[in-house]
Design brief:
The structure is a homodimer. Helix content of chain A is 29%, strand content 26%. By secondary structure, chain A is α/β, with parallel strands linked by helices. Chains A and B meet through β1, β2, β3, β7 and β8 of A and β1, β2, β3, β7 and β8 of B.
């Protein structure tokens, strides 16, 4: 996580200066039985690491209603109940493919590292109490990122609607970091008096509301709907990841997705204009201020992923794997050709 | 080639009806030493074949001046002097990866098949004489496509600026098809009296000019600059592949490409508005007319490639390879994951 944060920090500097580039995410959708098939791709080039990368998700997607809220659920429909997400890494010196890797672990590491950079610039330096909302896959990397940028944090409370998951999460991560984590029974119990609140859920409705938002608090979100529009309007400072707004969506005419949901997977009824917000590269490069006063309410929103994040995190993962002798060696020549493409 | 043409025909029908989808090509560019590194991607889904595909080119590109004209030249910089171009094929039922294949052969087959569909609808049915301008990789599949849609063609003349290449080309393909091919010494000798002219060069300047364009002639081009603007204006009917205009271009601020050249690789000085032209899906679905009168001058221009073409041609190639037992079996599970992406 430390390496991810450092490498992403450098990449955002390069992005701000125009040296690193990234192509806006695209989603291409068709019906597949009663579900939706989505081919999602994003590309990026990190010149400092000498690599370009393409991230590909080949997803079977459903939008079930769980309790009162809709969720976007990917179905592990590949053989062995598995998901299909790949990152291909290429050399910008020779063009050759350097690595192919699954995107699952890298996906959460880049979200955690990105949120951590937001927390670093927006949360109070003297933060002592934190809350994590969610106890799943993404919550783990939010915790890793939090420890990396605010090592002096003293109290961490965990809440999600599923108490069993919260217990399992606390047990696993307490052990991992040798730090106490407090499972709590309600969202209000988790966030009351917290200096930092990190939302890491799969909800496509808002869950962090104005009554939770205290002066001096920093709230992070792994995707826009988690923080309500009213909170974003109340905040003294809202910073987004990129401010691109939305992916390039191409879908077949006969596709039906739930009314309340864009192809992206979250509510579009509760609009907030993220395009006017400062972005993380601007924050990191110093073009805009981070937190200025202790009593400010601040938000960081991962609005849209970038291919550049995958180029960076897959690039350093590849180096680590090579030096650790991890992975399978596939002959480069089966992925290259003599024919002029 | 017959199978490519049939499958693409069906896919363009599905595209016209809104069932098949494709994402606009994108080019992401950064400097790489004295060259340019380009990461080019395009996605498409062909529901009729049950597959989605991503085509990726990871190119080292230069723009040398050869004689009086600039060319866009990809350098085979991967180990063993090889190029890097890949197509990944996925199942739209399970999301799983079904095949990875090099794009070189498929790239020219889809261009040849696409041009052939244009020729089928635009050239005179009683065409007897054809000219192919170019003697390289793409010229071969133009010839295959021509034989597929106009089997009664009697005279075929080949010209390119390199007489040695022309001889080699004629020898190889005469043998392949057991048909005579005539190597000629000038462009004018090739096109004079021809019913069909197919341009298949790497030139980024125009080469087919008004003085060559006779009444009743059909001219095809594998990319826009080959046919001069004046010819396109003179034509009674110009049909383009998609009319998208241009790829989504993202490039680093410090990138320098030749003044006369867009990232796409051809001259932008000699503009013609392809956006107003009918497209191949419209032609195939009958939304617009093909050739109506024998004396019409017609043009077909491959203006921009589509991910859909690769989904289709890679999809049928995969089936053929499987039934022929060709290819290497890689375990699906190294390209899938248990982690939620």
């Amino acid at each position: 996580m430390d390496q991810c944060i450092d490498a992403l920090h450098d990449a955002y500097l390069d992005f701000a200066s125009g040296a690193a580039v990234t192509r806006q995410r695209s989603d291409t959708l068709v019906p597949s039985g009663k579900s939706v098939y989505g081919l999602k791709t994003m590309d990026g080039i990190a010149p400092r690491l000498g690599v370009g990368a393409v991230r590909i998700n080949s997803d079977i997607v459903t939008w079930p209603k769980i309790g009162d809220s809709y969720r976007r659920v990917k179905v592990p429909a590949a053989p062995g109940s598995r998901y299909t997400g790949l990152i291909l890494v290429f050399s910008i010196e020779t063009g050759e493919p350097l690595a192919i890797m699954p995107d699952g672990v890298i996906q959460r590491m880049r979200v955690g590292a990105t949120s951590a950079l937001g927390t670093h610039h927006l949360a109070r330096a003297d933060s002592r109490t934190a809350a994590i909302i969610g106890s799943g896959w993404q919550a783990g990397s939010q915790l890793m990122g939090l420890f990396a940028v605010r090592p002096d944090i003293e109290v961490i409370r965990i809440f999600s609607p599923n108490p069993e998951n919260v217990k399992t999460f606390c047990r696993a991560w307490s052990q991992q970091f040798n730090r106490e984590l407090h499972a709590v029974d309600s969202l209000i119990e988790a966030v009351e008096g917290a200096d930092i609140v990190l939302c890491a859920t799969s909800s496509i409705d808002s869950l962090f509301e104005v009554e939770h938002f205290e002066a001096g608090m920093h709230v992070g979100s792994i995707k826009p709907p988690e923080i309500s529009r009213q909170c974003l309007e109340l905040a003294d400072r809202v910073c987004v990841h990129v401010g691109h707004g939305k992916p390039i969506l191409t879908q077949s005419d006969d596709l039906i997705v739930p009314d309340h949901s864009s192809g992206r997977g979250w509510s579009i009824s509760d609009k907030f204009d993220f395009a006017v917000c400062p972005t993380l590269p601007e924050l990191i490069s110093g073009a805009v201020n981070g937190r200025v006063k202790p009593q400010e309410r601040t938000c960081f929103v991962n609005d849209l992923g970038l291919g550049l994040q995958f180029a960076v995190v897959a690039g350093i993962t590849m180096r680590l794997a090579l030096s650790a002798g991890i992975g399978q060696d596939l002959p480069t020549e089966i992925f290259t050709q003599l024919e002029h493409p």
